[in-house]
Design goal:
Rossmann fold; Ig_E-set; disordered C terminus; glycosyltransferase; Immunoglobulin-like; binds 2-acetamido-2-deoxy-beta-D-glucopyranose; 24 strands; alpha/beta; signal; glycoprotein; endoplasmic reticulum; 5-stranded parallel beta sheet
Length: about 500
């Protein structure tokens, strides 16, 4: 082959490479993916509706990095005051995907969701919603079966089955008095007896510190606005520690059913998503800055992160002090400090000084995040898993509602309760960066499948629904109970929204 032919072949190959290389970097808006509950705002009512977008090139390959241009998202529609007022928030996850969430505060009609990229509509945009859309603040409960169907709640969570196994039949007429007597320890236990009857909420609380009942009030208020709950009665533990301990007298009388935000291997407590993640669900795009959607925004790309384990928190467990010791011994591996001393005040000189709080999103400047129990499970775990750092989790008898689904070394790196292997695990992660990144990515997929707002709503409704089937005594509003009232902003009881049944 002569020089000239060789050169032209080289040029041809170069040309193909350039063409292929550049075209594969361009987003093909029509092939890109758009999905999520926010596409059905008439059926799935959430405080903030959300949609996922994943950029795809013309060969159908998903992007792994943010595409070069920003998406343009807008909502058209009409409300009683003219245009449908909507706030829109865009969360770039930095892996080729993004979340768009939006909040409407008025009843709107003729809604069109427009999602564009580089001037072209993405996927099937514009999405036209035929039915009226109600804000979550409206009182528009759907029938239970319709709601479960519309929200695509999958089969009951296995955690619900596990937790309810010891409670096949519950006769509150029989056990209520003794239950209240047993846990009436005002200084140390705070519990509330809730009744939901005809979709109205009532409660009576026992204990000194009952302020946290506001979380359950808000949850039930939101749920009853969107779904007609079955009649139920339950006891909610407002404290950290699970109450219905295994062993002891319960071997004969059977355990008392108590709903808690934290479960443990040695208790029968029935777990609900924590007040923390539930509040973040109810208040996303509202009062809270940190929620399961906002935490997914990529601020610090993986390759720019500092390769250290970061930790901040209170002194609520001895291992947290031990962590400070380790961090001092290995400043190349850790950046860990206590923010408040309360439980071990006398050891502040030794394990202090305290440092100022930093924004949770700034934790993700660091590649490795540590989850160490506080008094019970550390309720930050969902947020750590949703961020783009690798999570190291201490072995623990305490759990939240979703822990049993997490697989060690798939979603997080486990370490021993006494922290004795933590340094080795960190060294392993530093030496296996690809594997570390993969675990981080799998954790974020887990979050997307299990801990998004719709999942938190489903879990509550499914648990309450299963619970209602086990109550053998009649559900009645009991003497001394206080009504928790809706502050109804709008109401669609007059329309036929409730009666419509798609099943
Ligand atoms: C934007 O769109 C124009 C016109 O369709 C196209 O030529 C160009 O390559 C696109 N740019 C990107 C970065 O997608
Ligand atoms: C529930 O307990 C009450 C009080 O002990 C009893 O009278 C009632 O028959 C029980 N109900 C059922 C369905 O077992
Ligand atoms: C630890 O982290 C904080 C917050 O990012 C930072 O200000 C500080 O300089 C870090 N300390 C060390 C020793 O790197």
């Amino acid at each position: 082959m002569n020089e000239c032919a060789r050169t032209s072949i080289k040029l041809l190959i170069l040309f193909i490479l350039l063409k292929y290389g550049s075209s594969s970097k361009l987003v093909d808006p029509s092939k890109s993916l758009v999905w999520g509950p926010g596409l059905k705002p008439d059926k799935i009512v959430l405080p903030a509706r959300y949609i996922f977008i994943h950029a795809v090139d013309r060969d159908g390959v998903r992007f792994r990095k943010s595409p070069p241009y920003a998406y343009q998202v807008f909502i058209e529609g009409q409300s009683g005051v003219g245009k449908c007022p909507a706030t829109i928030n865009f969360i770039d996850r930095g892996d080729g995907s993004a979340i768009v969430r939006y909040k409407i505060v008025r009843v709107c009609e003729k809604i069109e969701l427009h999602i564009k990229y580089n001037g072209s509509h993405v996927a099937k945009s514009p999405y036209i919603i035929e039915n009226t859309i109600y804000p979550e603040k409206c009182y528009c409960p759907q029938h239970l079966s319709t709601w479960l169907y519309n929200n695509e709640c999958s089969n009951n969570d296995q955690r619900i089955e596990l937790d309810l196994q010891p409670f096949k039949q519950v006769n509150f007429s029989n056990i209520r008095e003794n239950l209240i007597k047993k846990y009436d320890m005002p200084g140390s236990v705070s519990i509330c007896n809730y009744v939901v009857k005809n979709n109205e909420i009532y409660r009576k609380c026992y204990g000194k510190y009952v302020g946290y009942s506001m979380f359950m009030d808000a949850t039930l208020l939101s749920l009853t606005r969107v779904v007609k709950l079955p009649d139920i009665e339950f006891f909610l533990n407002l404290g950290d520690w699970p109450l219905s301990k295994k062993g002891g007298h319960q071997r004969t009388s059977g355990p008392y059913p108590i709903i808690s935000w934290c479960g443990s291997d040695d208790s029968y407590d029935i777990v609900l998503p924590t007040h923390d993640i539930t509040e973040a669900t109810l208040e996303n795009m509202g009062r809270v800055m940190l929620d399961m959607i906002s935490v997914q925004k990529e601020i610090y790309p993986w390759i720019e992160k500092k390769e250290k384990a970061f930790w901040r928190g209170r002194d609520s467990r001895y291992e947290r002090l031990h962590l400070i010791e380790l961090a001092r011994k290995h400043p190349d591996l850790f950046n860990a400090s206590i923010t408040n001393f309360f439980f071990f005040r006398d050891r502040e000189d030794e394990f202090g000084p305290t440092v100022k709080h930093i924004s949770f999103l700034d934790f993700f400047k660091y590649k490795y995040q540590l989850n160490i129990d506080g008094t019970v499970a550390a309720y930050r775990l969902p947020y750590l898993l949703g961020g783009n750092s690798l999570v190291f989790k201490q072995n623990s008898p305490f759990y939240e509602h979703f822990y049993y689904k997490l697989v060690p070394n798939k979603h997080f790196v486990p370490f021993k309760r006494d922290l004795s292997d933590l340094v080795d695990k960190l060294r392993w992660a530093k030496a296996h960066d690809n594997r570390a990144k993969e675990i981080m990515e799998t954790a974020r997929e887990f979050v997307q499948d299990n801990l998004m707002p719709v999942n938190i709503y489903c879990y509550h409704v499914q648990l309450f629904n299963e619970w209602s089937k086990r109550l053998v005594s009649p559900v009645t509003v009991l003497p001394g109970m206080e009504r928790v009232k809706q502050d109804v902003k709008c109401d669609c009881r007059e329309s036929n929204h409730i009666a419509k049944d798609e099943l």
